[in-house]
Amino acid sequence: MQNRKNLAAQIQAGITANANRYKMSYVPVFKIDVRDKPYHCGTMFSVSHMGNSFLVTAAHVLERDQKNPRDLDSQIYGFTDGRIVQIGKFLTANLTLPSRENLDLRIMSPIGLASSDFVAEPIPASNIWCGNMLRDFYVVACGFPKTKNRRKGRELTMRPYGYFGKIANEKLVSAEGYDPMFHFGIEIDLKRVYREGLNQIKAVEPDGISGGPVFVVHDFSRANVSIEPRLVGVVIARAKNSKMLICVRGEFLIHVIDVIENDQVGTEHKRTGSGSLTDPT
Length: 281
Description:
Elements (H helix, E strand, L loop, with lengths): L1 H19 L5 E7 L5 E12 L2 E6 L19 E4 L2 E4 L3 E6 L10 E5 L12 E2 L12 E7 L7 E2 L2 E2 L4 E7 L2 H6 L7 E13 L3 E3 L11 E7 L10 E9 L5 E6 L1 H12 L5 E2 L3 E6 L3
Parallel strand pairs: 2-8
Antiparallel strand pairs: 1-2, 2-3, 3-7, 4-5, 6-7, 6-19, 9-12, 9-15, 10-11, 12-13, 13-14, 13-17, 15-16, 16-17, 18-19
């Protein structure tokens, strides 16, 4: 019995350490309202690849907010040097799915600014998991939920949360209208979330964590083996019909980054459709 308790404590300690490993790698992002005030609209993080760093979020985070007359498509702001700054010009690329829709993923190479202006510690591309999403993986989806990230006077709260869960069955992902070749699901338990030091607290709705990174923090098929946290995906949605978060597979970050770095307009990628380089401004 004592050995089991010791093993459980070791696993919990490993999960905690892994979930906190990249806590400086993701940040909230904002839009500006008609009163010139910022409001939270999602989460982004940074990935480094061959000496370059890129900002990553869900593509829909940049879409025009129909409730905000001032907002425009591809308009997004980040926090740097104590102020809100627009990421006004950047190179990006789209990957088109077999359905002819674009993957809900936006990777940006800022022009006139650096990714490091917004995110302190990029995640090395070498730490992206490109293998199968195993059902024994225990993962954490990280981000900044809207209900806990608002203005307080002149200050902006920036409170990260993590949502833990196991990898969902691919049939459930398909049932929600997402192609499992490009997406995976996380079975979230809203009773098991962390804030800052991973103290378990009453869960808040995950709205606002779109664009946040997802890390594998434990592998239950090797319960007594510690693993290094790996970036496995990007949160893009909460399933409408189940307690599940939908994510883009991490391997496709590499495909998009390659398109941006190599300026491969129209390049065909295995499993990912076409790649196109665009400048939204």
